[in-house]
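Would you mind writing out the residues of a protein together with its fold in token form for me to study?
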Amino acid sequence: MDKYEIEVLEIKGEKIETWKFKINTDNKDSVKLLKEIVDYINGTNLKLVIDPIDEIFANIYLYPQDVFTPIDRDFFIERINKIVE
């Protein structure tokens, strides 16, 4: 079972699929996997927003400028499911 939520946001009349998941920033393995995601999206049209909840937890929003490719989806699903374990 996937451990992220999909929200469809409408920005300037365009619908954009956004993936939302929660991370425990005290968990070093989760932070390492999040760094892999950041490294992966660096230089692409994918965006990541970190929204702190408190001192330990944060919501992560991941979204493309266009659409996620199947390769992107597989990469993110694998890592997100491990981050949220």
